[in-house]
Design brief:
By secondary structure, this protein is mainly alpha-helical. Helices cover 71% and strands 0% of the residues. It contains nine helices and no strands.
């Protein structure tokens, strides 16, 4: 077998469209949005760059799809929908997400900052936040909160968002964990689950 006939190495991101989205997130987390090209995503995913164009059609479509995908991955991994009833696993699941896939969070913050420079990204970033708030509101409603569910969810998510940013900036993990426990305690009180054990 000639070396040119050797199969292409498998991507660490898997295969298919999801592999391209994972690769796009990793590229932006490492290089910023300016480093996101079809070529950089294709190289990270171990595919030809025409495949990226085939799946997404434009760089902006790739960015929007990657932002939606990253938010859904984060929401699922952090278990925001179940947050009101998770007990200590709430803090553990959020910290595990940060330790396991920090690039998801870095990517999203890169996109948020880029939206300040590129207004065409503003709708996608607004949708990102609404996805998070809606997921948390679902959990709050399921836990029995009936008053101002969206307002409470937005307020709690703002706290979580700030703590994640602090963690990524290097604030000590123990301090973040203690703050997450406090946020969870407030959430339990607000839903009336604070007295349950």
């Amino acid at each position: 077998m000639k070396s040119s006939d050797a199969p292409a190495p498998l991507s660490k991101y898997g295969t298919g469209k999801e592999a391209l989205l994972r690769a796009a997130v990793a590229v932006v987390a490492a290089k910023g949005l300016r480093g996101l090209t079809y070529r950089s995503v294709a190289e990270a995913a171990g595919v030809n760059n025409t495949l990226v164009a085939h799946h997404f059609g434009s760089r902006d479509a790739l960015i929007a799809a990657a932002l939606d995908w990253a938010a859904e991955q984060s929401i699922s991994a952090s278990r925001l929908r179940e947050a009101a009833g998770l007990g200590h696993s709430f803090t553990e699941s959020l910290l595990e997400l940060l330790l396991a896939e920090p690039e998801l969070q870095v990517f999203q913050y890169e996109m948020i900052l880029e939206a300040r420079r590129r207004p065409e990204l503003a709708d996608a970033v607004s949708a990102l936040y609404e996805n998070y708030v809606s997921a948390l509101a679902e959990g709050l409603a399921a836990a029995g909160l009936t008053d101002n569910v969206q307002v409470v969810a937005r307020t709690l998510f703002a706290s979580l968002d700030g703590l994640v940013l602090q963690y990524l900036a290097g604030v000590d993990r123990a301090l973040i964990a203690a703050s997450l426990e406090e946020v969870h305690g407030v959430l339990l009180l607000r839903t009336g689950a604070g007295g349950q054990a």
